[in-house]
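Protein in question passed on here:
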Amino acid sequence: MVNLNNKWDILLKDEFNKEYYKNLRVFLAEEYKNHTIYPSMYDIFNALKLTDFDDVKAVILGQDPYHGENQAHGLSFSVREGIEQPPSLKNIYKEIENDLGIKMSTSGDLTSWAKSGVLLLNTVLTVRANQANSHRGKGWEIFTDKVIELLNAREKPIVFILWGNNAKEKKIKITNPIHLILTAPHPSPLSAYNGFFGCQHFSKTNDFLRKNKIEEINWKN
């Protein structure tokens, strides 16, 4: 039984009992038993544990967890304290510094963002070591679609930040006109110069929150 210890437990209760999720659990039990899987099974749901439903101000959608050793800990784009920043995160920090004039720290841990209302959600929540997208199509996408649908139906405005094609695929789930959708290429070195740099998503997010009388996000990590 998954316990998130907040409102998500009530909202997702039925989801955990559906056939697709039961099949996903069987698959994951075998994967964790026979392979190295990231993140730790105790960290899979950290995004939902750290950012309660009513507290979400912005959603940053990632693809699947980092697949290198000790990197993933259940928050999209974030790595544990003491782990070198991956290239995508370095580019995110670079954009924040250019957009807001904030000097970011050397830590790649984004837990402070999660606690201040940024839901750092991957579309797929687990991965085999060194095999990107290895858990794609196993059921996680259905689960994270449900999370987005629940947020879309909320009456308090949210900023949905979609970087890269995988995240942009979720755009069709966001139909409520009170929300703001921001899209850009992925911050990976392969695409960051095609429009991620200069997107100003961090200042645009805070402008939107301020206009809706919602406390701004402190993007300083």
